[in-house]
Design goal:
- With about 350 residues, the chain is α/β, with parallel strands linked by helices.
- It is built from 14 helices and twelve strands.
- A six-stranded parallel sheet has the order 2-1-3-4-5-11, sandwiched between helices. A six-stranded mixed sheet has the order 7-6-8-9-10-12, sandwiched between helices.
- The longest helix is centred in the last third of the chain and has 17 residues.
Length: about 350
Amino acid sequence: MAITIKDVAKKANVAPSTVSRVIANSPRISEKTKKRVRKIMDELGYHPNMNARSLANQTTQAIGLVMPSSANTSFQNPFFPEVIRGISSYAHMKDYSLYMSTGETEEEIFDGVVKMVQGKRVDGIIVLYSRIDDKVVMYLNEQQFPFVLIGKPNHTIENITYIDNDNYVAGREVTEYLLSLGHKRIAFIGGSPNLMVTKERLAGYKAALRLANIELPNEYVCYMELLREGGQLAVEHLMEYATAPTAIVVTDDIMALGVLSTLSEKGYSVPDKVSVISFNNVIFAELAYPPLTSVDVKIYQLGYEAVKSLIEKVETPNLSPKSIIVPHKLVIRQTCKVYNKNQFKTI
């Protein structure tokens, strides 16, 4: 026979309404009582009927996740499993489930978001990217539906809660690091120019070069898909020049893997002939050959703070928008080296 609230209340020597308030995490119940009732719930194997609770509260206890592209493509990049791990951790603590959009195109993803909102399938949405003039973000903002952005919002939309790193500063710092090693021909490989993370890191890169009075050809900046193949194609493009770069800033570790492998195939050893620096510091950055110098953007924390902020918005609808900047850290490994003017004499 299934364990009921009355069974829990009887053993805890409290009213059934108290058990209900403990399940709802009501502030009216002391932490001591909550702890005792939850312990008895565990002992008896009682699990709250979340569907009934959701109907009573007119909530779904679900959070929607919106990826920048199809799940098949997005999950090729380790950033997304890690950020979802952070989201899942806090969502689980608060008894929220996750609902993911699965469209293959931008239009299908947008349609999926509309269905989530209009069908009341979720209480709020986390957008796992920030893109210039994004239909999803504009729609959610117009509908005044609770949502949080991972990434800096486009300046045309105000009053958005977002979680991000200071990507401008990070882009400038990695470029200044390469400049301090004596490099002057520094290329940049980014994702789509419509992504705010690409725009911000590129702006930091350009600012560092400008402060160092260095002008580089426009061809030194490449925009590619955030996949290993994107890094491979970028290297094919960059190393064609007679004055090829001696260092490369790559905006994503998965792209950097493609950069490392293609440089090796072409006979450009890293870091002896070309230095490479990247972003995200995912697990394989340390396992790459050679181990990849990368900016740790605290991916797990980005996800954790995003869902925490969203649930706060859901539970307190009049909460003012806020921005949280997660600190970053440059992790120096073995893909950067002091520039040697003789490094390109022998390939």
